[in-house]
């Protein structure tokens, strides 16, 4: 298990003579075993943050600290696993082989088989375990990608708009599955989305970014599984206002 502490984190990019301040002095504490969603307009720095957390990109300034809990006695630390918007499966491997891929270092074939079997079952993919990525739907491919990350068993799961390209029903279904996985395993999840409803449905805390800065940290004190009721809609509106910078009178007040 692990949490994340960000102190004064900044990232700049240069495009010609222009300097883009993608992230500006971010201070955040993502708690061990928490589900955090990050929302904001296009270009506000969400993906950049995940790329820094996953080590794909180096920060310009500031610190990223992974805080491992004391009772974590795993010999090998696996801080981060990431799921992207596209599934990024290997086309020459089957669903089952794609999911087993992160376990290639393990010697114990039975252990690999057991782990993959468990997540094939959880992700509803048993029937398609021998299919190749070209033979399955976008939703199934994304399930495989989530299953592959879970097989890897990282302390922290980063998800970059993983369901954005899926149809409404498949997205709803996978959102429910993420909640079930979170409730069963209590891994630290950081989930980036454009969709405010998705952010409120999933997150224990919603963090709103605007132009590279954190403009709101909103706890969602609703139990899972969440229904769209008055409080849900009020929180959604509050977040929408923080994103747009507008102050509108809520249609639904408690
Ligand atoms: N490799 C790069 N080189 C130059 N600029 C970059 C690079 N990556 C990101 N940026 C810039 O940093 C800013 C933040 O980009 P980022 O992709 O993090 O935004 P985002 O919130 O994830 O957007 P979206 O929701 O559209 O994916 C943008 O202005 C973008 O143009």
If you had to describe this structure to a student in words, what would you say it looks like?
With 254 residues, this protein is α/β, with parallel strands linked by helices. It has helices spanning 46-53, 95-100, 109-122, 138-152, 168-185, 196-202, 230-244; strands at 2-15, 18-30, 35-40, 61-68, 80-83, 156-160, 188-192, 205-210, 213-219. Helix 3 packs across helix 4 and helix 6 crosses helix 7. Helices cover 33% and strands 27% of the residues. It contains seven helices and nine strands. The strands form two sheets. A six-stranded mixed β-sheet has the order 5-6-7-3-8-9, with helices on both faces. The protein is globular. The longest helix has 18 residues, at 168-185. The two termini are 37 Å apart. The chain has one domain (32-55, 80-243): Rossmann fold (3-Layer(aba) Sandwich), CATH 3.40.50. Mean pLDDT is 90; it is low at 250-254. The relative contact order is 0.18. Strand 6, helix 5 (168-185) and strand 7 (188-192) form a beta-alpha-beta unit. The site of adenosine-5'-triphosphate (ATP) has 13 residues, from strand 1, strand 2 and helix 1.
Question: Short description, anyone?
Answer:
This protein is of the alpha/beta class. The protein contains seven helices and nine strands, in the order βββαββαααβαβαββα.
Structural descriptors:
254 residues; alpha/beta; six-stranded mixed beta sheet; 7 helices
């Amino acid at each position: 298990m692990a949490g994340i502490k960000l102190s004064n984190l900044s990232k700049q990019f240069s495009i010609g003579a222009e300097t883009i301040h993608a992230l500006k002095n971010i201070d955040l504490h993502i708690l061990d075993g928490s589900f955090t969603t990050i929302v904001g307009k296009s270009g506000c720095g969400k993906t950049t943050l995940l790329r820094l957390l996953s080590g794909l990109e180096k920060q310009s300034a500031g610190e990223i600290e992974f805080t491992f809990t004391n009772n974590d006695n795993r010999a090998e630390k696996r801080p981060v696993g990431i799921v992207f918007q596209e599934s990024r499966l290997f086309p020459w491997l089957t669903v089952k082989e794609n999911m087993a891929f992160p376990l290639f270092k393990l010697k114990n074939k039975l252990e690999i088989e057991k782990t993959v079997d468990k997540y094939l079952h959880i992700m509803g993919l048993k029937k398609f375990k021998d299919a190749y990525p070209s033979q399955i739907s976008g939703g199934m491919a994304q399930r495989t990608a989530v299953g592959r990350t879970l097989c890897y068993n990282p302390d922290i799961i980063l998800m970059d708009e993983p369901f954005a390209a899926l149809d409404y029903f498949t997205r709803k279904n996978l959102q429910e599955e993420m909640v079930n996985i979170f409730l069963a395993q209590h891994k630290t999840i950081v989930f980036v989305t454009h969709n405010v409803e998705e952010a409120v449905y999933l997150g224990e805390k919603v963090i709103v970014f605007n132009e590279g800065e954190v403009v709101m940290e909103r706890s969602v004190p609703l139990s899972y599984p969440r229904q769209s009721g008055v409080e849900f809609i009020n929180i959604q509106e509050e977040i929408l206002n923080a994103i747009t910078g507008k102050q509108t009178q809520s249609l639904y007040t408690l």
